[in-house]
Design a protein that fits this description.
GO terms for molecular function: hydrolase activity. This protein has 11 helices and 7 strands. It is of the alpha/beta class. The chain has one domain: Alpha/Beta hydrolase fold, catalytic domain (Rossmann fold, 3-Layer(aba) Sandwich), CATH 3.40.50.1820. The longest helix has 15 residues. The termini are far apart.
């Protein structure tokens, strides 16, 4: 029997969209966008990975191939034959596994500070640094603070870190790390003609416009890039109305 992942729905419009969060997040990351989203034109499913959020108690292998199967099972449950994908951070890499699993079902993909198909190409030292935050909420907060340009109030970074500790199981959080830190399937998506829109925050020190140009834009011939002002790595929290507007403007294009 297939286990159905937890998810939250918003809207009832004809354009179906499934959203995948980042390593530190959950489906709740998208809540701030909903006042600016159009429920008449779009239907959203905010998905939780196994071990995260509404799927926190679901066991699994915690791989992106498993995520792809779970996303497709959700689409089948909702009777969504074709749909678009949104992926934040590691969710950008995860959504590309969905594309590879069922390319005929994907209409468009939008990446928000999205990790490319080559992963983050971390060396052992950097992997160890990220691994150290698995059991240390202070280190989680430090990474969040850095990824937003070291410019926002530290209590907010601490708050987001505490939410990530609450909303993800340790084995899931640890399991997804090598998937996006060192995984690489770029050769499988090179030349893919799926329409892609990439959003990067102007203050994000790692997922930059230059990185997107050298990876996503080089591999997807129908990809475009937009830089969001006054945002770092967490645009859905930092500039939710601007992000929601830009997303739906692009999703509405023919």
């Amino acid at each position: 029997m297939t286990t159905l992942n937890g998810f939250q729905q918003f809207g009832h419009g004809p354009h179906k969209v499934i959203a995948l969060n980042g390593w530190f997040g959950s489906s709740a990351d998208w809540h701030a966008l909903t006042p600016a989203l159009d429920p008449e034109r779009f239907s959203y499913a905010f998905f939780d990975y196994r071990g995260y959020g509404l799927s926190r108690d679901i066991d699994g292998a915690f791989t992106f191939d498993e995520v792809a199967r779970d996303v497709l099972a959700l689409a089948d449950h909702l009777d969504w034959q074709r749909f678009s994908l949104i992926g934040h951070s590691m969710g950008g890499m995860a959504m590309q596994r969905v594309l590879l699993a069922a390319p005929e079902r994907i209409v468009k993909m939008a990446g928000v500070s999205a990790v490319p198909a080559c992963g983050s190409r971390m060396d052992e030292t950097r992997v160890a640094m990220f691994s150290a935050c698995i059991d240390d909420v202070t280190k989680r907060a430090g990474i969040i603070h850095f990824s937003t340009g070291s410019r926002l109030a530290s209590p907010w970074s601490t708050h987001l870190a505490q939410l990530s500790l609450r909303d993800s199981r340790r084995e899931a959080f640890a399991g997804y790390l090598p998937q996006w830190a060192t995984g690489d399937f770029a050769a499988q998506i090179d030349g893919n003609r799926t329409p892609v829109k990439l959003f990067v925050g102007e203050h994000d020190p790692t997922i930059t416009a230059d990185l997107m140009t050298r990876t996503w834009l080089a591999w997807y011939p129908n990809a475009t890039l937009e830089t969001l002002r006054n945002a770092g790595h967490y645009a859905m929290y930092e500039v939710p109305v601007a992000l929601a507007t830009a997303l739906e403007n692009w999703l509405s294009e023919p």
